[in-house]
Design brief:
Length: 487
């Protein structure tokens, strides 16, 4: 919402709470499989359902992965963490408490590097770091499915390892929140921590939003926004809430501390409940789980398996390969794609040419086939061979594009396709001279224009030659012969 000079100028203060399901074979405190898409209430056992006498057993892989997440995000890993019961009564919690971490979380502090909105297409934009408060490990709850006459609960999700990533209230705009979540998801996916599929509930976000007059240091009244089930809806919901709060303040109203539900389809929000008082969850240490000590050897072992962070990889691509921003921004978004590029760059010795084929043509073919880079019939060695064929003048760039499409269908090597279809460029000077003579005769105005100093006039003549040769004429030789005949 625009603010006139007659009204105070406000700034937003935003903090995010992001829940990310950890990718493990089994649940947090039992061997029951963790997963999505199963028949309702089939991924349960006495531990999940909190039946009398059922005791939790810690899933070490979940702890490994949250430690790795903390290391990736620069957190301090606590030497000792413990488990607490968060008590509340709600149908999605079969125990009527949630095993979580209260005063001794596993990951403390940390930060996420983001690229601020407004970066140009050719230059890496300004970066900043969003500070984290903590990351703690807990078990997920079930899911309520609301119908027209009843609400049913599915406990398949209950007990799934879940980490809550809490930021400091330092985000200033909806676009910054969008950038933060985009990078966070990329790091978690590339680190093998989570698939972060928001449609499957594997990544969920609540936003705490307040506004204050610019120059004020005291935080304003906080409103929590829930049900933000896509990163785009997080951005849109925050932008909507900032506009709503400014409208309330500029009209003389008062912001109420509350939880609001945002509907991404309609772009509107509604009040769910007031939050005048902090909810007392009556945390106490879980009597069935021992504290866990994390030593240096454990962290060193986990650190060795960590991937390169996306922006670190981008900076390396700038320095090592001299790639432009537009290409690096595409390549770092997916670890599989980045590895594919690096292999093609090494085999070809021409990293920029390889990157162009991958970022443009490979991704186009993969998208058209609704498949993945790993499933593509075009391998890095094929890209490297194609780069060499063009660089050596065996085929033209336009013919190379035809070869690329053929590779995607057949899986043949570029050389085999060129031989089978007779696509090699013609370097027969006699044949080329004949095509050039015909092109000059057919384009007298272009020939006259070139003789009068218009360099661009050559393009019409060279285009005629390429058409007559069906793209097989060597462009470099054509240029030399045209200039010689017009001299």
């Amino acid at each position: 919402m625009s603010q006139t000079s007659a009204t105070p100028l406000y700034e937003a203060v935003i903090g995010l709470e992001v829940h990310v399901q950890i990718k493990t074979a089994s649940k947090m405190f039992t061997r029951v499989p963790a997963g999505f898409g199963h028949a309702e209430n089939t991924l349960t056992d006495p531990v999940v359902l909190a039946l009398p006498g059922a005791l939790p057993v810690l899933n070490k892989q979940a702890l490994d992965k949250i430690i790795q997440a903390g290391l990736l995000l620069g957190c301090k890993i606590a030497p000792v963490c413990k488990w607490d019961r968060k008590n509340y009564f709600y149908p999605d919690s079969p125990k009527n408490y949630q095993i979580s971490q209260f005063d001794q979380p596993i990951c403390i502090g940390g930060k996420v590097e983001i690229e601020l909105p407004g970066a140009s297409r050719n230059v890496m934009g300004e970066h900043t770091h969003i500070e984290l408060t903590r990351i703690h490990l807990e078990e997920d709850v079930g899911k309520l499915n609301h119908g027209s006459v009843d609400s049913l609960v599915d406990y398949n999700r209950a007990g799934t390892p879940l980490m809550e990533i809490v930021t400091e209230p330092v985000l200033k705009s909806a676009d910054e929140a969008f950038a933060f979540l985009t990078v966070l998801r990329t790091i978690m996916v590339q680190g093998g921590i989570s698939d972060c599929d928001m449609e499957k509930g594997q990544m969920r976000c609540d936003a705490n939003i307040s506004i204050r007059p610019i120059g004020e240091t005291k935080l304003g009244t906080k409103v929590e926004l829930k049900n933000l089930n896509s990163i785009s809806f997080v951005r849109d919901g925050i932008a909507h809430e900032i506009r709503r709060q400014i409208a309330v303040k500029t009209s003389g109203g008062t912001i109420v501390q509350e939880t609001r539900d945002y509907d991404g389809q309609t772009g509107a929000s509604q009040s769910l409940r007031s939050k005048e008082m902090a909810h007392d969850y009556r945390y106490f240490p879980d009597p069935d789980l021992m504290p866990v000590k994390v030593d240096e050897d454990w962290k060193t072992h986990l650190r060795a398996a960590l991937p390169e962070l996306p922006f670190d990889r981008q900076r390396r691509y700038f320095e090592q390969y001299q790639l432009p921003y537009t290409l690096t921004a595409v390549l770092i978004s997916d670890a599989e794609l980045a590895a594919y590029f690096e292999e093609a760059a090494k085999l070809s010795g021409k990293p920029q040419a390889a990157a162009n084929w991958i970022a443009n043509d490979l991704l186009r073919e993969v998208s058209a086939a609704n498949t993945t880079v790993a499933e593509s019939k075009i391998r890095p060695a094929h890209v490297a061979e194609l780069v060499k064929l063009v660089d050596d003048g065996v085929i033209s760039s336009s013919i190379a594009k035809e070869v690329f499409v053929e590779m995607a269908t057949s899986g043949e090597t570029p050389g085999a396709i060129v031989e089978r279809k007779g696509l090699k460029q013609s370097t027969d000077t006699g044949e080329l001279e004949g095509w050039v003579r015909d092109a000059i005769a057919a384009n007298p105005a272009a020939a006259a224009g070139f003789k009068n100093g218009n360099e661009k006039a050559l393009n019409a003549i060279k285009g005629s030659v390429m058409k007559a040769s069906k793209g097989k004429a060597n462009p470099k030789l054509v240029d030399e012969i045209v200039r010689k005949q017009l001299a």
